[in-house]
Amino acid sequence: ERVDEILKAVYVQIDSLKTKGPEERHVAAIKETTRKRYETLAEKSWYWERELLDAYLRGEDPRNILEEPKLAVSFDARSIQQTAQEYFDMGNYIEMIRLPEKGSEQ
What single DSSP character describes residue 101? Predict the structure, then answer.
């Protein structure tokens, strides 16, 4: 019922990212959330087990795991804008909409 309204809002956000980039306060909030999440996960043995297994399965150097927190906060508003400009090609995209089955409760 609100598909067109939601799609319009999504496209407005994509256009804003491409033309203006994200607001610095949003970038700062994402970086802080990422930092806190890593600190919390780093205390869990299952996190290290999973990361080591993933590195092994991908054939990557497990020492790279220690670089992930630095990489996770190395972005800035400009790099996000550049990425949006590169990957959000509005001349070449697919729009997929999943609607509830008819007769199902919403």
Answer: P
